[in-house]
Amino acid sequence: MLRIGPIQLDLPVIQAALSGYSDAAMRLIARRCGAPYAIHEVVLDKIVVHSPKLRRQIVAIPPDDHPVGGQLMGAEPALFAQAAQLLAECGYDVIDINFGCPVRKVLGRCRGGYLLSEPTTAISILRSVRAAVPPHVPVTLKMRRGMDDSAESERAFFTIFDAAIEAGLAAVAVHGRTVEQKYVGPACWRFIERVKRYAGDFTILGSGDVFTATDALRMLEATGVDGVWAARGCIGNPWLFGEVRALLSGAALPEPPSVVEQGRIIRAHFELSEAHHGEKAARVMRKFGIKYSELHPSGGAVRDAFIAVQNREQWLAALDRWYDPACDWPPGVRKEGPGALIAAGAEA
Fold first, then answer.
1. What pLDDT score was predicted for residue 216?
2. What does the alpha-carbon distance between residue 191 and residue 112 come to, in Å, rounded to a whole number?
3. 38-49 burial by CB neighbour count: b if 16+ within 10 A, else e?
4. Nearest-angstrom CA–CA distance, 8 and 190
5. Quick one: which of 169, 230, 231, 177 has its CA closest to 203?
6. How high is the pLDDT of residue 341?
7. Strands, E assignment, the chain
8. Which residues are registered as beta bridge partners of 206?
9. Which pTM does this prediction carry?
10. Number of CB atoms found within 10 A of residue 276's CB
11. Phi, psi angle pair for 4, to nearest 5°
12. Which residues contact 10 (CB under 8 A, 6 or more apart)?
């Protein structure tokens, strides 16, 4: 249903790279819930090349975490290409190039979304990475619709986009906001639709304002993209992938996960995080617990409980208290996303 180079995926919705989130534990939980493909959180090219200790952590890919993408960010074509080659040699199935990050610190160092304002450097990175990575390893690109809403910015977008196709990249993920917007305001799905029509048979993934399974289907239908790049909507809601599978099969949208089911997945997530992060797991998992709490019928109290945890014992105590399978919990809560507004014609 979705092809990225030689990789055939059985679901057109993937888990995106999420800075600070999409570690091995999150990716494995997403796969257990139906995700066909996931991407490691973005890493700097210079860390991959110049920090062997950190590189060993980055390339510690669990055997059941495939196919997996490694997303890179940087500013120098040669260094970017060297890092991409190392990730491919270490077992990443796809190399993803980040030209979309809108964080001020990143832009100030000429990385991420900044490169949309520098087509010459951006194109050099695309060509260098594709040349450095073995031919059988797909290279993909994540980009926003431009630095801002100007005509000049749009021209730069399509200059880089055309170069990506010419360089032999396998797919491009397009986020419907500008770099200037960051995450404020709606993503412009109409722009994503324009890009897909322009691209023809070339693989395009749409990104922006996909928080639910229904949002994912609306994006597929409204824009015609080949796949959906699900990002923030996956945090604390890995069930999104199974729900998309159900809807695409013609079944009704499943009921929200019960509190007991939520507890089962959260406990498994915590165990995987412990295996990956050791003693840091309790602190790492707080941000996930906050997002998981949004599906709990007593969400506010659960959120407060997870915010307060400081160690493993407190984490497990909160989990035992709020996800006790012996309790008669009300039904789980379904989050509503903004996709309906976007599909109805909201513009960025």
1. 96
2. 20
3. bbbbbbbbbbbb
4. 27
5. 169
6. 52
7. 2-4, 7-9, 13-15, 38-44, 68-73, 94-99, 139-144, 171-175, 203-207, 227-230
8. 174, 228
9. 0.93
10. 18
11. -120, 95
12. 1, 36
Instruction: Judge whether 2 and 12 are in contact, CB under 8 Å.
Output: yes
Q: Is 143 helix (H, G, I), strand (E, B) or coil?
A: strand
For residue 101, indicate whether it is catalytic.
yes
**Looking at this protein, which amino acid is placed at residue 31?**
R
Segments of the chain scoring below 70 in pLDDT: 337-348
Angstrom distance (rounded) from CA 179 to CA 113: 6
Contact 165, 93 (CB under 8 A): no
Q: Which two tokens stand for residue 77?
A: 């074509």
For residues 177 and 146, give the distance between their C-alpha atoms in angstroms, rounded to a whole number. Answer: 8
Q: At residue 137, what is the residue type?
A: V
Q: In this structure, which amino acid lies at residue 52?
A: P
Residue type, position 87, single letter: L
For residue 156, give the amino acid letter.
Answer: A
Q: Which residue in 101, 110, 188, 327 is the catalytic one? A: 101
Q: Is 251 exposed, middle or buried (0-12, 13-18, 19+ CB in 10 A)?
A: exposed
> Which pLDDT does position 322 carry in this prediction?
98
In 3D space, the residue among 155, 124, 144, 223 whose CA is nearest the CA of residue 184 turns out to be 144
Confirm if 333 and 295 have CB atoms less than 8 A apart: yes
In one-letter notation, the amino acid at residue 218 is R
Beta carbons of 28 and 64 less than 8 angstroms apart: yes
Distance CA 60, CA 21 (A): 16
Q: Compute the distance between CA of residue 292 and CA of residue 117 in angstroms, rounded to an integer.
A: 37
HSE-CB of 69 using CA atoms within 13 angstroms: 30
**For residue 347, what pLDDT is reported?**
41
- pLDDT tens per residue, range 22-66: 999 999 999 999 999 999 999 999 999 998 888 888 888 999 999
Dmax over Cα atoms in the chain, in whole Å? 61
Structure tokens at 49: 């090349």
